[in-house]
Design a protein that fits this description.
The chain has helices at residues 44-56, 113-117, 124-136, 140-144, and strands at 2-10, 15-23, 26-31, 34-36, 59-70, 74-85, 103-110. It is an alpha+beta fold.
Length: 145
């Protein structure tokens, strides 16, 4: 089963970092930073650190596993993390140089239900989980510690 790791990256300003994806002939959408777990990764958390480094030249403190989604052939693990540094200009992931992959734009959105509702975050299941966690107050304070 293919495994992917993604991060809800909370900043010191109570925003989260998301990537706006624009591809030809597809409406724009937003995703959380992350990607596939590779055979050389020591752990899922190590894979997430690698992906955060590749995609946004960032460093983050992983707080906890927030949500897991499974299909027949894929498992996605979503982690809550506090982002400490990032630079979208210094990203190094192979997807950025591949032809036809479209655009990747890093955006900061408010860590609010309105912030989540204002973008087309994919998959919808994680958007729903985030709305519930925000409403319950279980993201901002926990990630700010």
């Amino acid at each position: 089963m293919k495994e992917r790791v993604r991060a809800v990256l909370v900043t010191a300003d109570d925003t989260i970092l998301v990537i706006r994806r624009t591809k030809p002939d597809i409406p724009e959408y937003w995703v959380l930073p992350g990607g596939g777990v590779e055979p050389g990764d020591e752990s899922r958390e190590a894979a997430l650190h690698r992906e955060i480094h590749e995609e946004i030249a960032g460093k983050a403190d992983i707080i906890r596993l927030l949500h897991t989604m499974e299909t027949d052939n894929e498992r996605q693990l979503f982690y809550l993390a506090r982002i400490t540094t990032w630079s979208f200009e210094d990203r190094t992931g192979p997807e950025f140089s591949a032809e036809g992959r479209g655009e990747y734009v890093l955006e900061e959105i408010p860590l609010t239900v309105e912030g989540i509702d204002g973008i087309g975050l994919k998959p919808e299941e994680i958007a729903h989980v985030l709305r519930g966690a925000i409403s319950a107050g279980s993201l901002g304070g926990e990630a700010a510690r």
